[in-house]
């Protein structure tokens, strides 16, 4: 678009001027510089004497306004709707600004200046018009011009739709009246200028506060200023001094939103004015009639008015209306009475062409804006065809450089339109691609069904349009070079008559004159190469975004040819280098094209010193798929000239897998599987694919590197080898490999064979063209694992050169093994796999070392210290040096610990290399003689969790005769840790036989001050222990311990006694009774405990909660080591201050004459509270027994007291449990107390019924 006036091609936006907000920076362009003097002389000058508003708030406000500038918004409706109010072109101006004049001044020598007219009357008044009107004598359009870009400049750069002026509103109440009067004066001055200019520009006043102002005073002051200046509510705003950044942005958005409909109406009024003039259907008269010239005709005026209507519609962002106006103006312009009526030699003809281009450009922009892409492409083609017809009929034709210059500009116009619009369908990434963009847009849906179209009418991306422009530039250069030398001379060196006669021979519209296009005097003319290269670079970038690699390479090649044409050898070499390194042509097999590229690159390197690239080219071009380039030295050792400016040694590396090579290296193993320490036959094949007739290739060394345990192999060239030719085309060479430390390297000055541990050998490394050498090697793997060929490197060392060609990808080669048949080496395929025998598996040497765990048990138990003994037996035929490592894998991290056991060992802790893995340091066992053994032990402790562990022992050993061969033996054992016991618990309250303290007596002071004085509760705890063990276990001790007590109490418990061993109550009370018992697998044993809870303070009424634990000391029957298992016990909660009823039973006698069993029931009612309680007691009769005692009574208890109610019953059953129902109800609260068993022979069933054993 740079070929056209910017105002003709830029999208029009409503102009907004910011005055007085801040001074313009010296680095910013002055908006008045780009305008013509017509827009300044005689204009309306706005001058404000108030100082410019400055400070952080002003800068913040200015920044927010500038961020709303829509100048850089893409030209498309999608971005227009999503730009959040950015519809203005916002320009910052100072306190002095000049609006363009409405009328031009009268001509200096007009009839009006005479005293009287021809008939003695005063002369008629002159009709003055706009300075840019074709009716004004001083206008550049006078008398028959249609329109000038200056008219768009006037509305886009000088005449705003809104004028925003900023002032400071003082906060000092003492000077506020004076400051407000000055503001009124300044605002009225600006309004008077706008009124006198008769422009409908909107005046907006924004007042910035400099301090805190009372809201009521502020409203009053703003109202006074508004009334004094005649402003409405949408024309004056106040911005507080302490506004934040978010408030600033909101304020700016509010101002612009309120201005937008007013500015649209402003341009709509201008459209109405232009439409009224068009509808007059009469051409206006000029200020002064021209002499012999004709004035602009009515059709010309209609073109002018339609173009204005289209521009004003663009200002309003109504692109559909603008497109219709532009199409009407375009059709009218090409009418016979306008453009065909203009003389070709007249400047008006080129002005008409420029206007036609501008209208066509704006029409296409409107079509792209509204997604009419196919119509837009057709409009571009139609305009090109119409201009071609015009210049063929009335111009200089199309066979000249001027026409190609116009075609270049027109093609770039379309590329710029697509780019500036950022057309969404062309700039949205395609799905399932790595950021690629579409190539073209489908035909629009608005076309009629069945309408025919060509593929080109689908809108393509910018690269295609730039490619068209490049072709036109090349054609322009070809036509320009055909201009005769006489026409290319400067006008100053040719006679005036000759200059005048040739002035109109060439089309210079958008092009230079012949003497400037291609001057003959040696001065620089038009830079075709620069424009071609810049156009190609832009096109390449667009094709790259779409992944069009082939087109990119074609354009890159054209770019290189242009650089060669300009003798820019370095730039050409850089461009060709990128193409040469590209692998696409090699994969496609385009050898002739690649050969031409290489030859051209060699020609460039004749002028550019790049030794590395030269060596790479010579190496690859030596392949037999290419032809030999005449007069080219293919010897790598001599291709670098001694006089080269390359300092020192030149190092070059080439990848054989990525490019063609005259030598191909392959490596093959004789078998897939081999054991450690066994010799392995290998073949290294070097096959020459060099062109016949080229010099032999003399390698200095060959390096083979392996992935795995094999050492690198180096083959060094023998000194004095002449490379004699053999009768056959292949040759076997046997190589004996030696360790690098024992190999004499006197002939390898820069060999890397001694840098690392390697195997070396020597051989004749001279390879003639079309010849194959097979080097037979034998290697011995020393470690187990997978071994593959990592790379084969061919190295050439010279005084000035180090060259290395490396092959690291053998998947594209077929594995072959060469065999001798009738004395001739013959290849044999190694299998169907393409990578056969390039990878082998070195299996460990079968170890004869055994690891056993003779004492391993089937299961172990939690909290048990586990010791596992291992025996290492050496069944090798010689002594072995053994190192033993161990690790434990657990499903739960931290589930156990382990360590080595034994005398003289350091207690090294196990490390955790991973989650759930513990590893011990290797234990050196020293030398184990043949048929000998070593014993080690491993201890596992802290086995609190019941999980399965996996113990892995790795024995690494070496035989005395093969110190380099490392053998391994692994043993994995499972250690199952289970819980040996599970228990269920029953808590049964018991009656405390000791008397309670008297509430009315002071208790005696105990001898021990720490003794507890509170009430005491007794419980009988029955623990039913179930054995999960896989063998009988001996329980040596069992304790019930308190882990935590809450409520201010003490707790004690007796040692557990197995229930089945207790036969009498006396035995239960015997503390010396044995508790050792054997519990068999899957059996349950019940242990009884007596648990006592006693309050420390007598008056403490808090509930007691006890967290208990059951400690079981047990051992295996074959071991004396006792382990302790800790089981959790449910929490016991004892409400010590609640009343309760305890029942005990004992047998009694009715007398010596009665032989019937009778029982005494003692109901003890306890009141541990500090209240007087009364209970209503009633005994229910039963069919199972007869009783004697109170049927119903009331019992009153004082605080901290208890009373026993006795009944005697005579049951009618024997050896059965019978139910006893005694109701005890609190007389005050009405709460029924539950009967609790207080001793043996009483229990409560699941339904809460109290049962007595009779």
Automatic annotation (TrEMBL):
Domain Trafficking protein particle complex subunit residue range list: 348-623
Top-level taxon of the source organism: Eukaryota
InterPro entries attached to this UniProt entry: Gryzun, TPC11
Residue span, Gryzun putative trafficking through Golgi domain: 657-1254
Disordered: region residues: 100-119
Full protein name: Trafficking protein particle complex subunit 11 domain-containing protein
Organism: Cladophialophora psammophila CBS 110553
Lineage: Eukaryota, Fungi, Dikarya, Ascomycota, Pezizomycotina
């Amino acid at each position: 678009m740079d070929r056209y006036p910017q105002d003709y091609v830029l999208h029009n936006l409503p102009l907004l001027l910011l005055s007085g907000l801040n001074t313009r920076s010296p680095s910013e362009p002055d908006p008045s510089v780009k305008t013509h003097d017509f827009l300044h002389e005689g204009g309306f000058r706005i001058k404000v004497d108030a100082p410019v508003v400055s400070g952080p708030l002003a800068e913040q406000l200015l920044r927010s306004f500038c961020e709303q500038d829509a100048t850089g918004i893409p030209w498309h409706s999608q971005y227009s709707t999503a730009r959040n109010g950015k519809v203005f072109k916002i320009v910052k101006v100072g306190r002095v600004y000049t609006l363009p004049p409405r009328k031009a001044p009268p001509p200096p020598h007009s009839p009006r200046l005479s005293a009287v007219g021809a008939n003695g009357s005063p002369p008629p008044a002159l009709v003055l018009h706009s300075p840019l009107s074709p009716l004004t004598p001083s206008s550049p359009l006078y008398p028959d011009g249609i329109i000038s870009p200056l008219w768009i400049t006037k509305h886009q750069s000088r005449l705003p739709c809104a004028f925003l002026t900023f002032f400071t509103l003082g906060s000092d109440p003492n000077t506020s009246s004076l400051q407000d009067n000055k503001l009124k004066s300044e605002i009225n001055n600006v309004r008077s200028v706008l009124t006198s200019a008769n422009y409908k520009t909107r005046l907006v006043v924004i007042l910035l506060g400099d301090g805190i102002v009372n809201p009521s005073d502020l409203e009053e002051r703003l109202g006074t200023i508004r009334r004094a200046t005649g402003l409405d509510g949408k024309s004056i705003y106040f911005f507080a001094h302490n506004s934040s950044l978010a408030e600033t942005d909101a304020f700016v958005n509010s101002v612009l939103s309120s201005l937008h409909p007013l500015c649209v109406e402003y341009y709509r009024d201008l459209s109405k004015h232009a439409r009224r003039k068009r509808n007059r259907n009469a051409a206006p008269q000029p200020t002064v009639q021209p002499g012999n010239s004709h004035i602009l005709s009515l059709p010309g005026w209609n073109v002018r008015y339609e173009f204005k209507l289209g521009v004003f519609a663009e200002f309003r962002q109504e692109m559909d209306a603008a497109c219709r106006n532009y199409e009407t103006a375009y059709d009218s312009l090409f009418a016979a009475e306008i453009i065909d009526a203009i003389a070709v030699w007249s400047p008006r003809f080129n002005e008409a062409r420029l206007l036609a281009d501008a209208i066509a450009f704006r029409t296409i922009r409107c079509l792209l804006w509204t997604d009419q892409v196919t119509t837009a492409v057709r409009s571009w083609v139609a305009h090109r065809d119409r201009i071609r017809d015009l210049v063929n009929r009335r111009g200089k034709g199309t066979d000249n450089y001027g026409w190609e210059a116009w075609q270049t500009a027109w093609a770039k116009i379309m590329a710029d339109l697509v780019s500036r619009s950022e057309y969404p369908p062309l700039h949205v990434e395609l799905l399932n691609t790595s950021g690629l963009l579409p190539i073209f847009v489908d035909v629009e849906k608005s076309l009629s069904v069945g309408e025919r179209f060509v593929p080109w009418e689908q809108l393509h991306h910018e690269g295609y349009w730039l490619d068209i422009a490049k072709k036109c530039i090349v054609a322009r250069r070809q036509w320009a070079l055909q201009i005769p030398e006489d026409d290319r001379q400067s006008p100053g060196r040719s006679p005036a008559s000759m200059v005048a006669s040739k002035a109109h021979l060439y089309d210079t519209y958008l092009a230079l004159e012949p003497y400037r296009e291609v001057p003959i005097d040696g001065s620089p003319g038009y830079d075709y190469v620069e424009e071609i290269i810049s156009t190609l670079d832009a096109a390449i970038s667009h094709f790259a975004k779409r992944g069009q690699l082939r087109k990119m390479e074609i354009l890159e090649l054209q770019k290189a040819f242009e650089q060669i044409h300009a003798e820019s050898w370095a730039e050409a070499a850089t461009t060709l280098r990128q193409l040469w390194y590209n692998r696409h042509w090699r994969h496609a097999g385009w050898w002739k094209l690649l050969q031409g590229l290489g030859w051209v690159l060699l020609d460039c390197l004749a002028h550019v010193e790049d030794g590395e690239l030269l060596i790479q080219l010579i190496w690859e071009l030596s392949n037999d798929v290419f032809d030999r380039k005449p007069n080219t030295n293919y010897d790598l050792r001599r291709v670098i000239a001694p006089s080269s400016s390359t300092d020192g040694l030149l190092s070059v590396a080439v990848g054989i897998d990525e490019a063609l090579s005259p030598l191909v290296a392959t490596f093959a193993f004789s078998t897939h599987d081999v054991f450690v320490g066994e010799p392995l036959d290998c073949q290294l094949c070097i096959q020459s694919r060099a062109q016949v007739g080229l010099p032999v290739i003399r390698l200095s060394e060959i390096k083979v590197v392996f992935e795995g345990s094999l050492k690198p192999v180096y083959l060094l060239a023998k000194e004095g080898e002449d490379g004699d030719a053999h009768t056959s085309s292949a040759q076997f060479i046997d190589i004996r490999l030696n360790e690098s430390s024992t190999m004499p390297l006197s002939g390898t000055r820069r060999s890397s064979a001694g840098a690392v541990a390697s195997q070396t050998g020597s051989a004749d490394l001279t390879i003639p063209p079309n010849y194959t050498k097979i080097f037979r090697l034998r290697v011995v793997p020393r470690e187990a694992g997978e071994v593959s060929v990592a790379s084969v490197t061919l190295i050439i060392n010279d005084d000035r050169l180090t060259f290395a060609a490396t092959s690291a990808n053998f998947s594209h080669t077929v594995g072959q093994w060469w065999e001798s048949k009738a004395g001739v080496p013959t290849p044999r395929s190694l299998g169907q796999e393409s990578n056969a025998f390039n990878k082998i598996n070195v299996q460990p040497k079968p170890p004869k070392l055994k690891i056993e765990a003779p004492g391993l048990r089937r299961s172990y138990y939690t909290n048990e210290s586990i010791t596992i003994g291992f025996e290492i037996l050496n069944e090798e035929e010689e002594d072995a040096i053994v190192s033993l490592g161990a690790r434990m894998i657990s499903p739960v991290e931290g589930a156990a610990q382990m360590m080595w056991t034994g005398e003289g060992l350091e207690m090294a802790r196990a490390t955790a290399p991973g989650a759930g893995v513990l590893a011990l340091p290797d234990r050196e066992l020293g030398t184990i003689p043949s048929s000998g053994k070593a014993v080690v032990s491993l201890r596992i402790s802290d086995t609190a969790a019941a999980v399965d562990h996996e113990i892995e022992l790795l024995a690494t050993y070496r035989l005395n005769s093969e110190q380099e061969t490392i053998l391994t033996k692994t043993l994995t054992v499972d250690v199952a840790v289970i819980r040996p016991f599970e228990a269920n618990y029953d808590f049964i309250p018991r009656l405390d036989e000791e008397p309670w303290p008297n509430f009315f007596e002071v208790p005696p002071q105990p001898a021990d001050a720490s003794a507890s004085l509170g009430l005491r509760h007794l419980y009988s705890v029955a623990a039913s222990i179930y054995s999960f063990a896989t063998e009988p276990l001996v329980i040596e001790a069992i304790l019930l311990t308190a882990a935590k007590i809450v409520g201010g109490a003490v707790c004690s418990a007796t040692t557990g006694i197995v229930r089945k061993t207790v036969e009498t109550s006396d035995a239960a009370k015997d503390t010396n009774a044995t508790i050792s018992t054997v519990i068999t697998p899957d059996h349950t044993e019940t242990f009884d405990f007596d648990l006592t809870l006693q309050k420390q303070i007598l008056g403490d009424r808090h509930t007691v909660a006890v967290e208990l634990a059951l400690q079981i000391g047990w051992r295996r029957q074959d071991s004396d080591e006792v382990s302790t298992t800790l089981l959790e016990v449910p929490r016991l909660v004892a409400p010590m201050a609640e009343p309760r009823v305890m029942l005990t039973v004992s047998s009694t006698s009715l007398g010596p004459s009665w032989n019937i069993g009778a029982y005494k029931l003692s109901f003890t009612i306890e009141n541990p509270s500090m209240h007087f309680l009364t209970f209503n007691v009633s005994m229910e009769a039963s069919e199972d027994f007869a009783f004697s005692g109170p049927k119903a009574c009331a019992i009153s208890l004082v605080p901290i007291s208890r009373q026993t109610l006795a009944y005697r019953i005579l049951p009618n059953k024997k050896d059965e449990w019978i139910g006893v129902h005694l109701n005890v109800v609190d007389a005050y609260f009405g709460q029924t107390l539950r009967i609790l068993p207080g001793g043996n022979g009483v229990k409560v069933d699941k339904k809460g019924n109290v049962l007595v054993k009779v």
